Amino acid sequence: MSTTTPALIPFDDRDGFIWFDGRLTPWRDAKVHALTHALHYASAVFEGERAYSGMIFKSREHSERLKKSAEILDFEIPYTVEEIDRAKAETLKANNLTDGYLRPIAWRGSEMMGVAAQANRIHLAIAAWAWPSYFSPELRAKGIRLCMAKYRRPAPDTAPTASKAAGLYMICTISKHEAERAGYQDAMMLDYRGQIAEATGANVFFVMNGEIHTPKPDCFLDGITRKTVMDLARARQLKVIERAIMPEEMANASECFLTGTAAEITPVGEIDRYKFTPGKVTQALWDDFQDLVRKPV
After folding, report:
1. pLDDT tens column, 192-210
2. How far apart are CA 238 and CA 234, in angstroms?
3. How far apart are CA 142 and CA 103, in angstroms?
4. How confident is the model at residue 89, as a pLDDT?
5. Residue with the larger pLDDT of the pair 297 and 233
6. Would you tell me how many other CB atoms lie within 10 Å of the CB of residue 185?
């Protein structure tokens, strides 16, 4: 296994509590029907968040994005941002977690079955569990390996690319499975124009001549961790450039790293035929990020 996730423990058979439609529910009882609209038509939005030392990192920003993603998918979550924030904190506490991962998800229910489902109830659930670093220390030291994905991120006029929507991750799952079968840890996705976009679940940065370059997020998610790392880089007086990056430009990069809630800051050692060496820029940003998320409130 390339990650430290306890993948052999089924997620439907665990102890603990899941916040489900306004109340804490025993973990195994948090169920939905087989004819739930979200299961058939991907009408679901979600967030991935981490808690450090009992505090959920940028909780409000995640809750705001969850609400916005639902609006983009043409439904309204029946809870305010403040109520969602409180529910996440309640879920973390109920599961006796100080460091952990949180998964809020909102979806259309089962009242109507068909493409149109405007009368369906909107549900919200929040789960939390222990999830250590996504990749092992050994992999982090040398950098993970990525191949190139065959699928591309869609154009913004063909899919709701500004949302964190369940359906947008179908091609990510396919691409990551193919990468793992080939001995890689992840895959790098191009966008619909053939430019570098992101990995299957994380944004990407390249260090070129002491500057940090990253694709402009105009057809994929502008990650909250991504924006945090950019702020940390600028605080170190590092120049951060958002621009279109063509695949062959990876030959000019000395370092490469991924950012995301699960990945945090993950060094990359290889993307296809391009090689990188985890270096001082990546390490400095990792140190700054750890200081930030564990800073006493």
Report:
1. 999 999 999 999 999 999 9
2. 5
3. 29
4. 98
5. 233
6. 24
Q: What's the CATH class of domain 137-293?
A: alpha beta
Catalytic residues: 164
- Say if residues 66 and 45 touch (Cβ distance below 8 Å): yes
Q: What are phi and psi of 181, to 5 degrees?
A: -65, -25
Q: Which residues of 219-241 are buried (b: 16+ CB within 10 A; e: fewer)?
A: bbbebbbbebbbebbeeeebeee
What is the spatial distance between Cα 165 and Cα 116, in angstroms, rounded to a whole number?
A: 17
Q: What is the pTM of this model?
A: 0.93
Q: For residue 226, give the H/E element and its range.
A: helix 224-235
CATH 3.40.50.150 applies to domain 17-129: no
Q: Where in the chain is the domain with CATH 3.20.10.10?
A: 137-293
Label residue 136 by pLDDT band (50, 70, 90). confident
Cβ atoms of 246 and 196 closer than 8 Å: yes
Q: How far apart are CA 74 and CA 25, in angstroms?
A: 27
Q: Where in the chain is the domain with CATH 3.30.470.10?
A: 17-129
